[in-house]
Amino acid sequence: MKHRIFGKKLGRNHNERQALFRSLTRSMFTHGSIETTDAKAKAVIPLVERLASTIVSKPELTARREMFRHLQDQTWVNNVVTTFKSTFGDQKSNFTKVTKIKYRYGDNALVVKLSFVKPVKFSVKKEEVAVEKVEPKAKKTVAKKAVKTVKKVKAVKETK
Q1: CA-based angle 48:50:52, to the nearest 5?
Q2: Going from the N-terminus, what domains does the chain have, and what CATH number goes with each?
Q3: What's the chain's average pLDDT?
Q4: Burial tier of 91 (Cβ tally within 10 Å: 0-12, 13-18, 19+)
Q5: How far is it, in rounded angstroms, from Cα 91 to Cα 37?
Q6: How many Å apart are CA 135 and CA 57, to the nearest integer?
Q7: Which of 118, 143, 150, 152 has its CA 20 to 30 A from that of 70?
């Protein structure tokens, strides 16, 4: 009998499974939808639903702290919380849907698309990093050779 046993192991130990769930939820809240196997989608849906309901129903700071545990980026958390609250204002549950896509060729596993019920656009403006232009060494050596030849030509002209 399977009393008090919840969830699938997915062929992984506890730490690997937690890392997989964290990665899937991060991708879900980053892109709005993910393509994964049916077993992984069914295993991660409760976590995604719980986080989504936390964002909508709980106070601002609590929701942000809960999301930070999974996303690990404060600017991204702020964006996700504000966007999610504006998209799913009064909704309390049923944030995700599962759509069958295909059967994978290698092992015939069912691949599904796990997405939010409403289209959500998460956009974060990343700070532009200043990049210094560095000239390759080949151009410098060509320039040095050109200077040497110009000096040689001037020296030849002066001797004539």
Answers
A1: 70
A2: 14-134 (3.90.1030.10)
A3: 82
A4: middle
A5: 27
A6: 55
A7: 118
Q: Which residue has the tokens 């759509």?
A: 99
49-69 burial: b if 16+ Cβ within 10 Å, else e:
eebbbbbbeeeeeebbebbee
Full-model pTM: 0.70
Q: Which amino acid is at 47?
A: L
